[in-house]
Design brief:
By secondary structure, the chain is an alpha+beta fold. About 55% of the residues lie in helices and about 20% in strands. It has one domain (about 5-59). A hairpin with a 2-residue loop joins strand 2 (about 35) and strand 3 (about 40-45). The relative contact order is 0.21.
Length: about 60
């Protein structure tokens, strides 16, 4: 079972179909929670699902 639990930033912005600046703006506004692992930034898969669901409600 190879389910992805965390995504790289590039993968997350591709899945969400948003720009890098929009992604980091959402991070600054605490709308997307990220995890730092050393110098790497990762986003939990469940967090992406939550953000995408919230974005659909707003739009």
């Amino acid at each position: 079972m190879n389910t992805v639990t965390h995504y790289k930033v590039d993968q997350a912005i591709d899945l969400l179909n948003i720009s890098r600046s929009t992604f980091y703006k959402a991070v600054r506004e605490d709308r997307i929670a990220v995890t730092k692992i050393g110098r790497c930034t990762r986003v939990c898969a469940k967090e992406l699902e939550r953000f995408a669901a919230d974005a659909k409600v707003v739009n």
